Amino acid sequence: MRQEQYRMQKIDKTDSVKAGIDKINFYTPNHYLDLVDLAEARGVDPNKYLIGIGQNRMSVAALDQDVVAMAANAAEPILSDDDRQEIGMLIVATESSIDQSKAAALFVQDLLGLTADLRAIEIKEACYGATAGIQLACDYVRCHPGRKVLVIASDIARYGLDTPGEVTQGAGAVAMLVTRDPGILAIEPESLYASRSTGDFWRPNYSTEAFARGKFSEEVYVGMFSDLWDKARQQGLADPEHLQALLFHIPFSKMGRKGLRTLGNGKISEANYNRLTERFEQSIVYGKEVGNIYTGSIYLALLSLLDNDETLQAGDRIGLFSYGSGSVAELYFGTLQPGYRNRLDAQGHRALLDARERLSIPDYEAMFSAQLVTDGSEQNLERSDSAAGASHYLAGMKKHERRYR
Ligand code: CAA
Predict the structure, then answer these.
(1) Which of 74, 186, 242, 379 could cross-link to 175 by cystine, CB 3.0-4.6 Å?
(2) Do 33 and 196 meet the contact criterion of CB atoms below 8 Å apart?
(3) How do strand 328-336 and strand 19-27 relate by DSSP bridges?
(4) What does R_g of the chain's alpha carbons equal in angstroms?
(5) Catalytic pick from 31, 125, 166, 249?
């Protein structure tokens, strides 16, 4: 009886004000490392990377494509003049922050030519940050009619040369416009979340590379997914029969696969498991090429699914499991909206990936090791990506300040 009441309340709230993702786009830098080349250079069987980790390539960012430039490049193509006027909040989620004080969102606001009439903030909680941003954005648009929120996830995943995490690096940004009556995905207000302090992954302020207890991080990720899934089932929120796809945070595709596999041992029927697995394969197409983009990874999985799957339909319900080390996790749900396919640019996204230039190992190592000056001197940077879709870049440093173009 209580569960029935709960479900009715949920439907009432969902129907009252629809909020969610209206537009979505991504940017990734124009250089990549082939992981077979990396395996050969590190004396590893390539199948460990291709099958064991489940990745093919990773994007590598030059110094001028920092998280601010990538964020602006991801957002620029989806914003109309009306959107620019109506954005009431700009959230940049990142764990590759460029400043301890000023929000990356303020640089992005400037580059995108947004009005001063907005809140500009940066959110950090490892790979969970963008999901906090999306939930905050949905709440905001539900109580601010006529306003929109631009949420951008932007990160450069760095573990260091010749480390176990090296193969799980990457770079990129995903921009999402959150509105009322969204055109792509309406997000349900009810979700399951949990926070638990863990030492699975961290990056001290003085380090440009992250540290991880890799195997432990996998355990925490899988454990938090299982806990939230079981709770969602108890509360009637995750009926597998009516779930057409289940997306995961994808630091590397094997990680999401391990999460999904926890449902394969009789937790859900074989037919439902097979359907979710088929859709999972579509959700990892882009991530396998780009690598880990930390907080944007699950949203790159969403875009990959929507661009590559030809069987989903408006009205289909999908689940999203977001995980951020440290650790915060959330499982939430959304429904695809009529005409959502017309709001995607699958051809443009594929072209962005195909246009990237393959790096040799020495060039990759040189790009990885390059650093911005830290002594206040002047440094001018070459624009590394001359494509029309990469119009924003970091031009250099002067007196400890970043100068963008
Ligand atoms: N052919 C096929 N598979 C092979 C193989 C071969 N020749 N050789 C090895 N493998 C398989 C292994 O069996 C293993 O598979 P399972 O995981 O299914 O057991 C897999 O390849 C990985 O090999 P190892 O067990 O030897 O693992 P590793 O020491 O190389 O480390 C890692 C892997 C822990 C993921 C490491 O890359 C890492 O620390 N990455 C960073 C941390 C991370 O991404 N954690 C994810 C959860 S935390 C998170 O999600 C937040 C975030 O974004 C960071």
Answers:
(1) 74
(2) no
(3) unpaired
(4) 20
(5) 249
Q: Is 93 helix (H, G, I), strand (E, B) or coil?
A: strand
Q: Say which DSSP state 188 is in.
A: P
Structural domain count of the chain:
2
The CATH number of the domain holding residue 27 is 3.40.47.10
Reply yes or no: is the peptide bond before residue 297 cis, omega within 30 of 0. no
- Same domain, yes or no: 324 and 351: no
Predicted pLDDT of residue 6: 40
Asked whether 217 lines ligand 1 (CB < 6 A), one says yes
Strand intervals (E) in 214-259: 245-248
One domain, residues 150 and 75: yes
Q: Report how far ligand 1's centroid is from the alpha carbon of 52 (Å).
A: 7
pLDDT tens track for 239-281:
999 999 999 999 999 999 999 999 998 999 999 999 999 999 9
- Are both 170 and 195 inside the same structural domain? no
Structural domain span for residue 297: 187-337
Is residue 127 annotated as part of the catalytic site, yes or no? Answer: yes
The per-residue pLDDT for 138 is 98
